[in-house]
Amino acid sequence: MLTADLAWLYNNHFWLVTMRDLETGNIDAPAGWHVAVLTFDDGAESQFLWNAQHVPTPTCSVGVLEAFQAAHPTWPVTATFYLNQSPWATDSVAKMQWLVAHGFELGNHTWDENNLGGLDAAQIEKVVGEEQAYIERAVPGYVPVSFALPYGIAPTNPQDRQALLDGTYQGTKWHFEGIALVGASVSASPFSRNWSIQIPRIQEVDPSLLPTGDLPYIMAGVEERFAKDPAAFYTSGGNPDYIPFPAADASLLSPAYAAKADPIAAGKAP
Fold first, then answer.
1. What H or E segment, with its residue span, contains residue 19?
2. Number of structural domains the chain divides into
3. Strands 105-108 and 80-83, how do they pair?
4. What confidence score (pLDDT) does residue 3 get?
5. Residues of the chain with pLDDT under 70
6. Which CATH number belongs to the domain containing residue 112 in this structure?
7. What is the pLDDT of residue 1?
8. How crowded is the C-beta side of 41, counted as CA atoms within 13 Å?
């Protein structure tokens, strides 16, 4: 299924970036290409297996990604892995270092996939801070800036939410640029007024296993939506210093990116 998803993204001109790139608006994709982020949660063993020579096995997720990269060397195959303690069952630290060295991103998913809905600020700082410190110890100099909500459940109290976004635990500090949700829809452009630090994601699920009403929220629904209206998806202008968009949509641009605005008159090519 992962190979098929990669093929669809490549064939439909989707440029892969990390969640860090999306959150910070660091989009350097060729003109005419759309943008996608691949994410993996929990550090399941099947995501990353390798042999005695530390070469990913061909059937694990990382092996599939590496094989697709080898077959499409000009396409940036990358992904963001949201981790708990001791991911992938074995060689956790070595695998974390390997991923960063090969252009992948590591994100925080709490120490033990903790449900934050029932925790106070101090408890949130503990479970988030333990994981943050673990990743930073494993990969010296690396600082995760993205977080995925376990079970998609966020703290309801403003003070508790702030502890999640900007916290300190036993000397480890963090500031998250984005909070990845479990699912729900395609994300808005980071340059849009509609952009939110709470970032929706699309799940990969066999559509035959779900009610038809859930189709818009899984990958099969995205493919169907894209086939009907590709212009509704973010499209790069090819120059990260400028953000092209129809002049009629100027009100939708986030004020934070006003200096990069490149409005295009109706009927004009970007």
1. helix 19-24
2. 1
3. parallel
4. 97
5. 265-270
6. 3.20.20.370
7. 86
8. 20
